[in-house]
Structure formats: structure tokens, C-alpha cells
């Protein structure tokens, strides 16, 4: 992925439209789980001309507000297309840039992927985000405990070989990787769940994953 960061809050909407004509433009948070997922999919696709616009807390970005009035991250702009949230961005990128494929061709396989993604989006991601929040220490602690219990219940699903849905990397692996990367910061060691640690290390060792990390996310490994 050829990503370039821009200073937030300085480009005009006209500049955004120009960037959209030149290639995809992804508005991304530096620590947002969904943003990391979308950046990882884009990195796996190694998209020429892809650009990242970082959205930082407390900094107004008028281009992003223009394209995403509800302020959803990530937001993708590609010519006439503007869409969010992360799963729609991931599926759009897979259809727009079909190689390497991250979704199965057959309907049954795609349905299984979407079921797995639904659990991540609706249960695990919210618990992780709440666990990382500094707004309410008691609520964050409770979310971390629930997340750990959820992961223990999923111990059998982590693959000992290959990837989550079989022998090939899929959108599900791209969604798991950002969550697994944050677990040590949530006080959940990767080896606390059987097979989770080796699976996580396999994902972290990929070049695309390393390229997808923001500076904030990279610091989580320290």
C-alpha cells in the first residue's frame, strides 16, 4: 500500500475531490479498531495511489465532515463513492481490487465470513473499545473481563494451521489482527487462550500488517 499522511484540517473539499479522482482516500483514526481493519485490508491489496488522511482527536477536518457528516471512522472516498463503516469499506475494497481475494467466491463461504465478522463487530470490538476507554475505569474493567471470557469461549475456533476460514487469508483474519494486537494493552496475554498466540503471531508477521500500523498502534507493542 502506498500510503501518504496529510496534515489534518488544512485541505479544502476541492482538494478531497481531486484526491478522490486520483485514487482511494481513507479517513482513518490512529487507534480506532475499525480504521485499523480497513487499513489492513488496503495494505493486503497493495493498492497503488491509496492515501490515508489521519483523523486526530480535537482536530477538525472539514473534508471528513463534508464526506461523513455523522463522523464515522473509517470513511472511504473513491471517485463518486463514499462509504463507511469498516465492514463495508473492507468488502468494497475486496470487490474493487479483487487480487488477492479476501472473500470466498461461493455464497455459503461468503455467508460464513459475514457471520464471523458480525460477531467481531457486534460483540468483541465494542468490548475492546470500552476496555481501552479511560472515561470510566469500572466500566472498562468490566469490559476487559467480558472480553477475556468471550475469547476463552472461542478457544477452539483459533486455527492451529492456516487461517481462520481455511488455508487462505480472508477478511476475517484482517478483522481479528487489529483486535489481537490490542489484547496485551487490555491486560489479556495472547497465550492466555489456546492457539490464539501462534495465530496472532502469524498475522503480525505479515508485511501488510506491519505497514498497516499507525504510530500510535505501533507503540502498543512497547
Automatic annotation (TrEMBL):
Residues 106-222 form the GST C-terminal domain. PROSITE patterns: GST_CTER, GST_NTER. Pfam families: GST_N_3. SUPFAM superfamilies: GST C-terminal domain-like, Thioredoxin-like. Residues 22-101 form the GST N-terminal domain. It comes from the Bacteria. InterPro entries: Glutathione-S-Trfase_C-like (IPR010987), Glutathione-S-Trfase_C_sf (IPR036282), Glutathione_S-Trfase_N (IPR004045), GST_Omega/HSP26 (IPR050983), Thioredoxin-like_sf (IPR036249). Transmembrane segments: none annotated. This is Glutathione S-transferase N-terminal domain-containing protein. It comes from Banduia mediterranea.
Amino acid at each position: 500500500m502506498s500510503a501518504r499522511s496529510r496534515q489534518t484540517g488544512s485541505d479544502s473539499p476541492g482538494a478531497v475531490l481531486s484526491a478522490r479522482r486520483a485514487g482511494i482516500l481513507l479517513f482513518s483514526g490512529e487507534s480506532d479498531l475499525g480504521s485499523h481493519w480497513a487499513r489492513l485490508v488496503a495494505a493486503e491489496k497493495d493498492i497503488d495511489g491509496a492515501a490515508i488522511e489521519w483523523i486526530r482527536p480535537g482536530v477538525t477536518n472539514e473534508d471528513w465532515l463534508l464526506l461523513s457528516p455523522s463522523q464515522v471512522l473509517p470513511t472511504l472516498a473513491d471517485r463518486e463513492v463514499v462509504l463507511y463503516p469498516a465492514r463495508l469499506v473492507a468488502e468494497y475494497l475486496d470487490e474493487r481490487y479483487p487480487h488477492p481475494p479476501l472473500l470466498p467466491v461461493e455464497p455459503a463461504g461468503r455467508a460464513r465470513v459475514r457471520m464471523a465478522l458480525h460477531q467481531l463487530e457486534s460483540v468483541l470490538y465494542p468490548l475492546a473499545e470500552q476496555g481501552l476507554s479511560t472515561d470510566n475505569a469500572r466500566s472498562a474493567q468490566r469490559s476487559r473481563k467480558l472480553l477475556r471470557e468471550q475469547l476463552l469461549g472461542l478457544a477452539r475456533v483459533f486455527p492451529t494451521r492456516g487461517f481462520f476460514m481455511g488455508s487462505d487469508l480472508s477478511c476475517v483474519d484482517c478483522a481479528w489482527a487489529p483486535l489481537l494486537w490490542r489484547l496485551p494493552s487490555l491486560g489479556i496475554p495472547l497465550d492466555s487462550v489456546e492457539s490464539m498466540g501462534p495465530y496472532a503471531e502469524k498475522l503480525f508477521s505479515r508485511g501488510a500488517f506491519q505497514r498497516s500500523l499507525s504510530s500510535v498502534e505501533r507503540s502498543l507493542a512497547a
